[in-house]
Design brief:
The structure is a homodimer.
Chain A (H helix, E strand, L loop, with lengths): L7 H11 L2 H7 L7 H19 L3 H7 L2 E3 L2 E3 L4 H10 L18 H14 L1 H20 L2 H13 L2 E6 L15 E4 L5 E11 L8 E10 L10 E6 L1 E3 L5 E4 L2 E6 L10 E14 L5 H37 L23 H32 L5 H37 L1 H4 L5 H9 L8 H14 L4 H16 L7 H27 L2 H30 L7 H18 L1 H10 L4 H4 L8
Parallel strand pairs in A: 3-6, 4-6
Antiparallel strand pairs in A: 1-2, 4-5, 5-11, 6-7, 7-11, 8-9, 10-11
Helix pairs in contact in A: 1-10, 1-17, 3-6, 6-7, 6-9, 6-10, 7-8, 7-9, 9-10, 9-11, 9-13, 10-11, 10-17, 10-18, 11-13, 11-14, 11-17, 14-17, 15-16, 16-17, 17-18, 17-19
């Protein structure tokens, strides 16, 4: 099992050197979130994660959750760890002060969430989903409902879920059947069956608050008849007290590839009392708000998986003695050289490092945009800009970083050779756990359509143009050390290529909308590599200021940036070439001819 | 669980239309192996695989092997299925007639092995390893030893293993410590501990014959002091009768990512009696013979995994209704269109199909070369040519097809969305099971070094030049239907690029041997795409002759070839660009700076 160490120095670099978090928080009125407090919080979060959450990762995988007599039990140790997590106040970190939260920024919590996910993906999903449910309640619930449910959600005594999927409806929510019948008191009665509900049932909390999409009796068909509800597992009185069962039950849990410490539940609603969130039939719009935030969280899981796997692989590559360097023994006193001398092992490690650290820079920056969108003191203009950036970057980060995070964990297994396949070392669990991130909250294919169809073409290119223009101007005016200038030129060329690629697709799509689907995933991957390279160049430039005080750190960042531009960014070219092709090669085969 | 169907029509096409198996077998003196017999064997093998082996795939994964009181039990049903497998004579198919085998060609057995592996990877490994052990015994054992051990190995009553790895020595066999002490009667006593022994212990057979590498007392250090031994689990008398225990025991089994139905054992040798195979201290050379054949088998596992996952994903994509085609409803009478209408779903399915069918053509052709190398009637020249081709293509097929097979299974999960992550559907098991193929018998990195350092540069380019020249001449003289001619040009250009790429690396490697390691994996992947495209163009041309009789089949092959050249072969360019780079981006970082 690789021992997880919170990479505080790496996090500190991104937060302070890259994002200037002190200024950012001050400008948004987070007066308590001083750089010193941020560092103190992260140090404590690191300790807690390393000592309480990380040690349960393997037992969670081995034991999994048990479903007996209608209830779910979490693996040994989860309950006690979750209680410690509550006692230490971690659930409240970025939650609203009026309901007992600490009111700290979203971005600060995201850093903690990265740690938790890297240490124990399954465990981290409990607070993760709960925060998603709370955000939805805060955005769409009225005051009375918030007062009734938020305090215990904030404290972590209750947890939350998101109930979207039904057996016949995954990506296509318009097909959903769960129905809601209005009651005289303004509440609704919900009936239906939801599947794939993460954290859907468990023994960590006394109540679980489900956010459920359903169709109000008589609502229009399709996505225009979807409404959003809050449905507690146990009924809750006006004062927030538990008031008995509520027709919500867990019907089964899935046996699955990974995240075994988190039950994936069938949740049945049988005339369960629920409360409308937002307007009737506007549920899908409300869900999109939630999903964008959730997708930044899932992108962070990709980063976390890459980080955890990199830590394990790096330690192993330094210790494992096997064969001599082709350019002559590096440790002649040993029976063989450590495998880190081999160029291909370095290629794998550097790829992992590039994804973990570059992906971190990507998602932390996005988290600062979320801070802005949530801030009461930011200007409308600033909020619009942040929201536009999030719209564009969220599907890229979600799909690209989870695919690359998965690749990083697969490389981690390869570094270990056969040992990587053995559970004991923990490397294969990272692969299995993180594969879910390429699937839930919208598969890679769905993210790619969201990016290209909805965000890029849907804004007639405006979101993309604004982003690329900003980046282009930044890089043309930024003082850049000479050795990094070739990377600057490469990046500028790619930004231009991005625009041209988009125009080509837009023109083709006017003739045939299938061109969008045919180009989408390669288009997204191209974009992912470009944004990753942008982050790496930013880091290489920012690291310059540490050249005197921490030359190894500076060199490491700049050498990794060099690797990214030399060995990863070229893959963007192949994705661009594929995205530039028409759909013929995909569409010409008749369905019955596939075999 | 996707129901596995042996793709007999596909197999038939490759064997007869592409490889002209009737002629091939006749020319090697396999007089019984007529086209009719081949078809009859494959039909029976398909039935047996579908009805006996496939149904145990999931139970094998769920139950796994159990290790209790020093012995290993296989999952429920394995024992009975293996007995049926023996009773039907399947183990004997391509084994030597003098020991009870049917003497049919290696290539015919490989087709059966593909079926078994696709249906149940873990089960297929029992006969797979056993055939490897028999091949080693036939190649290096003397007559007496063969007579003593072969009959029961051939019948399948006993099985075999290969014992190479030790805890501290995986790829670097020179580090091995297991020692062999010569006895007066010519036998040896072996002591040591081997790990990762697939099929190392089980309850399917009454005895297990281990092929073991060890160091004879006083042998030179490193790879020059390695000898090869046969060590039975239970001692065997001169007449082949079992004669009690032999100091061989299973110390533990690994918990691992997949192939749970096959125990991966620690095997301890404690003064166990063994018999030398071949010359003392020449064991590594002998192992290489075995490993080349074994690696063709592992490459086939990649094909098998892609095939199984494609079958599952295709069926699902035709049934699952979700969203409308962007170019307008295709099934307006249904609630949504089947997901096969979406271009990106087609991209995933076609990728799977391209790997399964193109990879099949690749490994079957290689199997015909193995037939030649094993044939008594082939000319020395023909044998040399076959052996040269195998040397070059084996690492390519092993690494490229297992990496692509893994990718295919991952795409299969993506086609299913969240359902792909759930065990019930069987798609995630395919991923977990086939990941081992990227690791055992030499990781992808090891194959890449074998290809570039040993095979290509080690022959001063001769093996590659001979292969590319033959391919180039074939494609320049082959009559090609007009619509396929652009592919012909693309392929010829890639063959030329292959040579240029190699020359560039050879020149750089003279200055710095690390250039080989730095280029190796991308070089191998480039080669893999080129060979895959070559096979697809061959199939597209060959399919022409079925245009009248089976137009759908012909069109499917040609459209898939079009897809391969349009959407997969361009990835070769990016690998070539990376392989053409110098090692600087990998080697400049000091080891302590990785973090």
């Amino acid at each position: 099992m690789p021992a997880y160490h919170a990479p505080l120095k790496e996090m500190h670099f991104v937060l302070h050197d890259l994002l200037n978090l002190g200024n950012h928080y001050a400008s948004l009125g987070f007066n308590e979130a001083t750089p010193e407090l941020v560092d103190a919080v992260l140090e404590e979060a690191g300790k807690f994660t390393e000592s309480v959450i990380a040690p349960l990762n393997r037992v969670g995988d081995e034991q999994g959750c048990r479903f007996e007599q209608g209830t779910v039990s979490t693996p040994e140790g989860f309950k006690s760890a979750y209680q410690q997590y509550i006692d230490a106040g971690w659930p409240t970190l970025a939650q609203p002060e009026q309901y007992g939260g600490q009111g700290l920024p979203y971005s600060l919590n995201l850093v903690c969430a990265e740690m938790q996910s890297a240490a124990n993906h399954a465990f981290a999903m409990y607070p993760g989903l709960s925060h998603g449910a709370q955000a939805t309640l805060m955005a769409h619930g009225d005051d009375a409902l918030q007062q009734r449910f938020m305090p215990k959600l904030v404290s972590g005594e209750w947890t939350g879920t998101m109930c979207l999927t039904e057996a016949h409806c995954g990506s296509d929510l318009g097909l959903l059947r769960t129905k809601a019948v209005p009651q005289e008191d303004g509440s609704y009665r919900l009936s239906g069956s939801k599947i794939f509900i993460s954290s859907g049932d468990h023994d960590l909390a006394e109540n679980i608050v489900h956010i459920v999409i359903a169709r109000i009796e008589g609502a229009p068909a399709g996505t225009k008849g979807i409404s959003l509800f809050l449905v507690p597992k146990l009924a809750v009185g006006d004062a927030g007290e538990i008031a008995g069962p509520n027709g919500v039950s867990c019907g089964a849990i899935e046996h699955k590839m990974g995240i075994n410490g988190n039950a994936t539940c069938v949740i049945n609603f049988d005339d369960a009392t629920g409360y409308l969130l937002g307007e009737p039939n506007r549920g899908l719009n409300a869900m999109f708000t939630f999903m964008n935030a959730a997708r930044v969280g899932v992108a962070t899981e990709g980063v976390a998986a890459a980080e955890a796997s990199f830590q394990g692989a790096l330690a192993y590559a330094r210790e494992r003695l096997q064969m001599r360097s082709l350019s002559g023994p590096k440790c002649p006193e040993k029976a063989a050289d450590p495998i880190i001398v081999h160029p291909d092992v370095r290629r794998m490690l550097l790829t992992q490092k590039a994804i973990a650290e570059g992906g971190r820079a990507m998602v932390y920056e996005m988290a600062t945009w979320v801070d802005v969108t949530k801030s009461a003191s930011a200007s409308a203009e600033a909020k619009q800009r942040a929201s536009d950036r999030l719209s564009l970057l969220t599907p890229i980060a979600k799909a690209f970083l989870t695919e690359m995070g998965f690749e990083a964990t697969s490389l981690g297994v390869q570094v270990f050779g056969g040992h990587g396949y053995v559970s004991e070392w923990g490397m294969e669990q990272l692969m299995r756990d993180t594969k879910i991130s390429c699937l839930y909250e919208g598969t890679t294919g769905i993210q790619a359509l969201d990016l290209l169809a909805r965000k890029v073409l849907g804004s007639r290119g405006a979101l993309l143009e604004s982003y690329c223009t900003e980046l282009g101007q930044w890089w043309m005016t930024q003082p850049i050390p000479d050795p990094l200038k070739p990377m600057q030129q490469q990046l500028l060329a790619h930004l231009q290529q991005w625009g041209e690629l988009t125009q080509g697709i837009a023109i083709r799509a006017q003739q045939n909308p299938d061109e969008i689907g045919a180009a989408s995933v390669d288009y997204l991957m191209f974009a992912g590599y470009v944004v990753l390279a942008h982050q790496w160049l930013k880091m290489a430039v920012a690291a310059e200021s540490r050249r005197e005080t921490d030359p190894d750190f500076c060199q490491s960042k700049q050498d990794t940036a060099y690797f990214v531009f030399a060995r990863l960014l070229p893959k963007a070219a192949s994705h661009a070439a594929l995205a530039a092709q028409d759909s013929g090669s995909l569409m010409r085969m008749a369905e019955h001819q596939f075999r």
